[in-house]
Predict the structure.
Amino acid sequence: MSTSPAATTRKPDSGADFLPLQGTDYVEFYVGNAKQAAHFYKSAFGFQSLAYSGPETGSKDKVSYVVRQNKLTFVFTTALHPNHPIAQHVQVHGDGVNILALRVDNAASAWNETTARGGKSAMEPTILTDKWGEVVLSGIHTYGDTIHLFVERNNYSGPFMPGFSEWKTAYNPPSTGLQYVDHCVGNVGWHQMDRWVKFYEEVMGFRNILSFDDNDISTEYSALMSKVMSNGNGYVKFPINEPAEGKKKSQIEEYLDFYRGEGVQHVALATPNIVDTVTQLRDRGVEFLQVPSSYYDDLLSRVGTIDEDVQPLKELGILVDRDDEGYLLQIFTKPVEDRPTLFFEIIQRKGAQSFGKGNFKALFEAIEREQSARGNL
Ligand code: FE2
């Protein structure tokens, strides 16, 4: 692999989308033990081995395992030395998402356009090459220690990117049907919502498509506010949560306390058959938040006719919500590490483009039961 600075040609500012995104390229997690994390996402979530980087491929100070399921690519990275920045990230935050990588046609342009609008550079445009072609990377900082990396890979045919070799194993558990990243949610600190809404609007050209205040998202005890930011074509959606005052500690505040700052709260993974996917995930050991069975008593009178039988939804704890355009089914895992921080949402959209507002109360009460059991409510 070789690296060199990319040409930084400035595109004239037209009225068009200055940051065209093709979707999520990958999500990278900094973890304490990448080998074991990759195994968990294969065995429990149904990802397949894809690529590896480590001392054997020339990476002397960190190791990365790349796994893939349909259009989902996750990277798990561990430092090999205690004073490496990745080791420090894990010491502060625990296992968590560091990179939300976005696919672009021109990584140099993405960097030029966003840094010209005030984005703080995390990586200047850099060309990586190997026998399979070239990948151009650039990046900017967002909330907390989180980074948006822009990935240009139109001229690359290798397994992942230069520096990685193909990773083949004898253990290849089947897919659970997960397809792509539907949205990624960030938790930001008290009174930081407007700052980050402005960042996504001004630096990345996103729009605020939905807002929820503490009247929408408040239970007896705790509260939060949320705004959904979307890019121009709607392929990339980043809801942002901020804690709000309630009788007791907001679930967002619990996250901020344990993550030691702002960061990714959940990644929503889309499936075309949520009953089948969640059945497999549960059978493979993924733990989900449970709502009381009374949630299902008047489900159909709340959401109208749905294609699915209610009984399997009730057995699995899958939630349903309807908006003007259709309905959606969703369920949330418990945190996937010991700190109460990152979790996953499994979502199936049947027309609805919203985020399950009708489920917030039942869902947050379920979260609070867990919070209370941890002594953090
Ligand atoms: Fe979500």
